[in-house]
């Protein structure tokens, strides 16, 4: 890699967006599990 090449590091807003999407995915997965439990208990 040349010294003039740009860093492979993604920009700050992209990293923030990726972190937010990961959190949203975890929240969605937990919500789906809770919904299945509630439906299964009724």
Number of helices: 1
Q: Describe the largest sheet.
A: none
Unreliable spans = none
Q: Kindly report how far apart the N and C termini lie.
A: 60 Å
Overall spatial form: rod-shaped
Helicity, as a percent range:
over 70%
Order of helices and strands: H
Strand fraction equals under 5%
Radius of gyration equals 19 Å
Secondary-structure class: mainly alpha
InterPro entries: MmpB-like
Keywords: Membrane, Transmembrane, Transmembrane helix
Transmembrane segments: 20-41
Pfam family, one: MmpB
Characterization of this structure:
By secondary structure, this protein is an all-alpha fold. It has one helix spanning 12-41. It is rod-shaped. The mean pLDDT is 88.
Task: Give the structure's gist in a few sentences.
The chain has 42 residues and is an all-alpha fold. It is built from one helix and no strands.
Topology:
Elements: H1 12-41
Features:
mainly alpha; 1 helix; transmembrane; membrane; rod-shaped; transmembrane helix; 42 residues; MmpB-like; single chain
